[in-house]
Amino acid sequence: MPSSELWAVDLFGRVFTLSTAGQQWELCRDAQLEFKRVSAAAPCCWGIACDNQVYVRVGASDVPIRCREEAYENQRWNPVGGFCEALLPSDRWPWSDVSGLQHRPLDGVALPSPHWEWESDWYVDENFGGEPTEKGGWTYAIDFPHTYTRDKKWNSCVRRRRWTRYRRYKSRDTWAKIPSEDDPQQLPDPFSDLSLGGWEITDEPVGHLSVWAVSLQGKVWYREDVSHSNPEGSSWSLVDTPGEAVQISCGPHDLLWVSLWEGQALVREGINRNNPKGSSWSVVEPPTSENGILHVSAGVGVVWAVTKDRKVWFRRGVNSHNPCGTSWIEMVGEMMMVNVGLNDQVWGIGWTDRALYFRHGVTQSELSGKTWKAIVAGRECDGSRAGSLSSLLSAGCFFGDEVRGGGESCVPSDSEAERPGPDPERDVEVAGPASAPAELPWTNIDLKEPKKGPSHAAADFPEATNLSSLALLPLGLEEPDSADCHALWAWVSGGGCAVEAHTTLKWFTAHSGLPASMQMLSLPITPAQTAAWRKQIFQQLTERTQRELENFRHYEQAVEQSVWVKTGALQWWCDWKPHKWVDVRVALEQFTGHDGVRDSILFIYYMVHEEKKYIHVFLNEVTALVPVLNEAKHSFAVYTPERTRQRWPVRLAAATEQDMSDWLALLNLCCCESRRVHGRPSPQAIWSVTCKGDIFVSEPSPDLEAPERWLPCDQMFWRQMGGHLRVVEANSRGVVWGIGYDHTAWVYTGGYGGGCFQGLASSTSNIYTQSDVKCVYIYENQRWNPVTGYTSRGLPTDRYMWSDATGLQECTKASTKPPSLQWAWVSDWFVDFSVPGGTDQEGWQYASDFPALYHGHKTMKDFVRRRCWTRKCKLVTSGPWLEVAPIALGDVSIIPEIPGAHGSGPGIALWAVSDKGDVLCRLGVCELNPAGSSWLHVGTDQPFASVSIGGCYQVWAVARDGSAFYRGSVSPSKPAGLGHRRQSPGEPKPEPGNCVSPHGCAAPGAHGAGLGLWHRGGLGSPVRPGQCHQGPQELVPGDGRQAERGAGPPQWALEGGRCPAGDPQSCLLLRPLPLTWSRCDAGFEGPRLMQAFLSRAVLVLNVLKRGSQEWYLQAQIRDWGGNLA
């Protein structure tokens, strides 16, 4: 899990952050601002400073925040002078927006605030629908407004062209002041509180944020249009409330609570995608009538509150359908305030000691947690004090033991850090007998300072005799809280801090088990000393190993001959009648031969007409062990070459998930031992993923490519790796990247196993927790009725009114389950507005009949409609994968091995496309650092969908509108290249491309939106387009996942096949160039391109239908800026 940050403000207005992977508070050093309150989310943090101004701090990232400004130049045809800017009085403005209603001259488009800067000048966008226009970028129509085309016709009376300019947000990693309103009457008084949330509102576009604030007069305000591309928002809008508000809290979803001066709480209802500000208020009474609510904090499904007597309360029964909850539960402890962060984790600030506490034990099953734990992390500003103490301690031989005693008193013990809650009687400790000066420097703080322990006047300072007090008092004059053992906090925000239930934090103990004085005296170990130490130990171990081998060389090698048997009860799927699950007894027998090789046999005993029979499987013939995702069974399939050809794998099911994992790990270990496959995969390994997200790897053998004896493809052995991915990408230098279904990037760490593979089947290191989120889609279908309009009652021949995308299977909200028992729902059903073809405001798509082409607006000929419902589910597993934060990716490509390079290159080129369409280049990728160091953003004038880099640094990409681009001058010295050239779609015009890939020194291949295969000619050595077939006579349709190979002449692909009987099984296809395809292993399918790292080959993609022509394009070439190259 990547690290995230907890934000807090101390009594002196300084803002600190604490990483989940660290042990020390880091000070936000910027402009010497003093803050009252902050509210954080994952991408940014908002705050109210002591000057009563609102500020926002956006974290630094390799991907810039860019916004595109557009203006349209409109002209009408004149019989005398042709097209000119003289328009009719009823026409739109000569310079306008896309609708033509707003006047928008180029010189009138200004930056929204000083925190933006222009990235380029205005230029004409010559791209129209993914295809280039004529020179000048004009599009023509009959009249305003109308359908525009790029071709000029005889009746084209008007024309327009789009001018584009990009602006970039430049105030990153610094506090940026939110611009004030132009009208001073809009904000009559400053703000006293604000809250950030709403980034996971149902159906809300990615990057949207809801910022709410409360003014000193008790009014509630909402910041409009706050998103990832517009972090400042546009303006403040007033939201009416039935009372005067004091404090406000907004959860990540649709919960919004407000505390009133009278002690009640207000709950906002009706918050959704179309109305993020909600529709109405509901009043919630306080827990007790004597003490009203002082502070409230909302999360995903919980609400915590603090009353005026400092008691902490938990609201039960809160959810999206019932935001008001049901009742209050009193919790232990007295707090000044509480804050609910991600995953409903809770932080609080103690009332008596102003210490920061974390609610331990909060899980989905126990949202109230178990106990409060104090956070004892240090701070950067305490470094000067520690340095002074360490210098004094180093002189202990001159001053005696008094110094050591004074130095140790400033570190809290472990017992204090683990105490169950804040003690009301606990006072703030001071370092040494002397305390801080009584008069502290004045600061603009609106919070009451807590009581302190006994103190002495500043005049008593010369009479103090303790040396520790002499060292601390001058520091106390510079930093008012340096005499205290712990910081005094005023506010905390955990909206951007992700703490999982199983995460182990380092916040609750000292930096080591040694006392503070020993920590100060310990010297750091330099990297040079560490390297010398490791080298010495390695030499000693090498000498010991050689010495032992020489002493026992004359002994014969002992070979153990033994038999080992494991039995159990499983269920077996009977492939013949009655085609059902049968209870069986299984026995795994492992024996060791005279040559020391271990082999195993799996026996399955079943009963037929009261007669005991069995089938057996030799594990040295097993090619794959694949978990089968099922809603009701914990099952897996065993594939052999013969059963792969027959489409009859051995399917076994266990009673529990743990039993299935144990059997799967044991069988996988036995298969690896029989084939002598151990440890991590080699750099030349072939990686693949199934349509369910399982990761498999195969080790190529010399027989695989031997021309005199071809190894049949169906005899390749695939072993499973832990983790869950949608895409995997590798090269022959051992660098492997993957992308999950939630667009999270993962890098291979060098381990093996994980997931259900534990013990001997997994490495002891480089295994990390991995999570993935995917969406389940169902469709609501309706037909138009002349009487009642659209209704859920269709014709007898229609599809189900609740179905899948094909309409063949009935899928209702109640009956639809997660993909398997390993997945769990993490959201409710919501309408998906991002389906292809567009939707109306309610998410409906219209068509003339089922099935047909759907569109987002209703016409007179539309008699049916549908809308897509989506629900998210989450899988938590483990594997040798480490997350590459913080950018979500949609595609990734790694350069294959260059012929003749022999792995001696300076670095490994890696290109990617983010989920927003930004093109990125990863810097610093090598064998020792496969994750790289940072992202380099490559500017584009439109979002991209796919990218691929070939062996000679040929970078090709496809935009979301289907345009193909080529990046020029890419080299190790210039990893991002100099310019991108645009290729017109050319021959495959009806099917714009959606991915393209060059490999080796050959030409690139691509497939269109209909997945037809095309070849780019004239770029290198000629390569013939391949043909896909099963045996000598039949075509193999289907869809495939991805397979990759490090180096070598053959080309690999995974493709979902269909047998003649229509059995929806899948197959692996192997193509040794220039031969045709032959069928290999089963159990893999999915919808993405297949990559191959070849010295001389074309990338063959996921083939559903073959094109009959080669893709020879001869058209204008344009760079990313739209200029003619």
From TrEMBL:
Name assigned to this protein: Tectonin beta-propeller repeat-containing protein 1 isoform X1
Family: Belongs to the TECPR1 family.
Stretches with biased composition (Basic and acidic residues): 416-429
Record organism: Balaenoptera acutorostrata
PANTHER family: DYSFERLIN-RELATED (PTHR23250), TECTONIN BETA-PROPELLER REPEAT-CONTAINING PROTEIN 1 (PTHR23250:SF1)
UniProt-annotated stretches for the region Disordered: 408-460, 969-994
Cross-referenced SMART domains: DysFC, DysFN, TECPR
Taxonomy, superkingdom: Eukaryota
Species classification: Eukaryota, Metazoa, Chordata, Craniata, Vertebrata
Gene: TECPR1
Domain Peroxin/Ferlin: 64-125, 137-170, 771-832, 843-876
Keywords attached to this entry: Repeat
